[in-house]
Amino acid sequence: MDFFEPPLDRRPTSSSKWNRYAGRDVLPFWVADMDLPCAPFILEAVRERLEHPILGYTEPSEEINAAFIDWAAETLDWIVEPEWLVWIPGVVPGFNLAARAIAARGARLVIPTPAYHPFLRVPEHASLDAADSPLVLAGDRWEMDFDHLAAIMPDAAGLLFCNPQNPTGRVYEKHELETLAALALEHDTVLISDEIHCGIVLDPTCRHRSVAALDPAVANLTISLFAATKTYNFAGLNAAIAVIPDATLRERFSAERKGLVSNISPLAYAATLAAYRDDSDWVDKLNVFLAQNERLVRAAVERSNVLSMTPVEGTYLGWIDARAIDPDDPTAFFEAHGLGFSPGEDFGGRGFVRFNFACSRSLLERGIERLEAAVRSV
Ligand SMILES: Cc1ncc(COP(=O)(O)O)c(C=O)c1O
Questions:
Q1: CA nearest neighbour of 346 among 367, 317, 370, 366
Q2: Which of 33, 283, 314, 355 is the most buried (most CB within 10 A)?
Q3: In this predicted model, what pLDDT tens digit does every residue of 10-33 receive, in sequence order?
Q4: CATH at residue 23
Q5: 237 C-alpha vs ligand 1 centroid, how far in Å?
Q6: pLDDT tens digits, residue range 190-219?
Q7: Are residues 80 and 200 in the same domain?
Q8: Does 140 have pLDDT greater than 70?
Q9: Are 262 and 58 in contact (CB under 8 A)?
């Protein structure tokens, strides 16, 4: 499959991913953007916007709300009202605003771990105590520990989680979301649901579901965060949407952003509008391609006999247990073998590394050769 060949050289673009190892022979498989071009129709929409030479302040409008609402109805089976939408320039500002907006409701913020590393700094930013709830390995998948959650949710202002889950690649099943929602309703805990990876579902037996779509009572206790930026690969343009059905929560969220968090930019607007209007098969093809990459990575991990990795249901991130190589910092070992992974410790998973496999097949194959050479050297 040469869908995304030849690999593009990102070094002239001051790419965060490639800058980290500038001047070193280390292939970067860390930060979660794809070494693949955006969909052509996204680029076309941005180019078309540039035909107008004024790039002034831009507001969300009826057309972009309608595009998102139609997408949510079709993809999530969730009827979203326009007044629930708050457009923001990123999911990271979104979950930080959400935590500040709910801080008065309780003493702590519950976070299932390992978790996307900026989650782990949210409690401090919002003056809340962090209450981690480790995911448990059940067979070949990571699951929330509902008994543990039930014990720590009383007295919590909220629970911040991510679905599909970064870094373990889980796409939570309906019954898991129902159990979580029941706990939230029982303890009146706000759910902050980061669904930025919802377009990347690799396992055809899995389907992304939004916890808020389960039931209006759950929706009223949920701040859901979406963006088209991961699926279509325009993360650098910065655009996201918070969906907040409860008016009081929404007012608090909007009050927190004042003077700090701007609207989305004109180019982010154009790209996001094109993404939510997309009715092509581009994302389906992307997911097939990424699923093949995932199988190549998982096969190499299995052959290694020292590493292990659960199947990635969603996201393009492999969560590799490398404790047998180095229980503290396997990242340094892999860097010495020319591989730049995200350190598991940043996510609350010491001894693990996260492998972003969203790149051209030829780059991935070079990475896998290095992985195999690294493991042989142990
Ligand atoms: C779970 C999760 N949330 C949020 C983000 C980043 O969001 P944004 O760039 O919109 O702030 C990422 C990026 O890797 C992510 O994995």
A1: 317
A2: 355
A3: 999 999 999 999 999 999 999 999
A4: 3.90.1150.10
A5: 12
A6: 999 999 999 999 999 999 999 999 999 999
A7: yes
A8: yes
A9: no
Mean pLDDT of 144-156: 96
List the end-to-end C-alpha distance of the chain, in Å, as a whole number: 33
Among 261, 276, 291, identify where a domain stops.
276
Local structure of 250: helix, strand or coil: helix
Clarify whether residues 351 and 256 are in a common domain: no
Q: Are residues 167 and 23 in the same domain?
A: no
Q: Where are the alpha helices (DSSP H) in the chain?
A: 16-19, 40-50, 62-76, 91-102, 117-125, 146-152, 174-187, 216-219, 229-232, 247-257, 266-276, 282-304, 330-336, 361-376
Q: Are 226 and 198 in contact (CB under 8 A)?
A: yes
CA of 138 to the centre of ligand 1 (A): 26
The binding-site residues of ligand 1, defined as CB within 6 angstroms of any ligand atom, are 32, 90-92, 116, 162, 166, 194, 196, 227, 229, 235, 240
Closest residue by CA, ligand 1 atom 9:
90
Pocket test for ligand 1, best of 166, 231, 238 (most atoms within 8 A of CB): 166
- Choose which residue among 116, 238, 241 to substitute to test ligand 1 binding: the one with the highest number of ligand atoms within 8 A of its C-beta: 116
Same domain, 240 and 350: no
Structure tokens at 73: 């109805």
Q: Which atom of ligand 1 is nearest to the CA of 317?
A: 16
Q: Is residue 38 part of a domain?
A: no
Distance 92 CA to ligand 1 centre (A): 6
From the CA of 116, give the closest atom in ligand 1.
Answer: 1
**Ligand 1 centroid to residue 99 C-alpha, Å:** 16
User: Ligand 1 centroid vs 53 CA: distance in angstroms?
Assistant: 30
| Half-sphere CA count of 130, side-chain side, radius 13 A | 17
In this structure, the answer to whether residues 266 and 290 fall within a common structural domain is: no
Can you give the residue range of the structural domain that contains 327? 11-31+281-376
Specify the number of domains making up the chain: 2
Please say if the pLDDT value at position 349 is more than 90.
yes
pLDDT range class, residue 2, cuts 50, 70, 90:
low
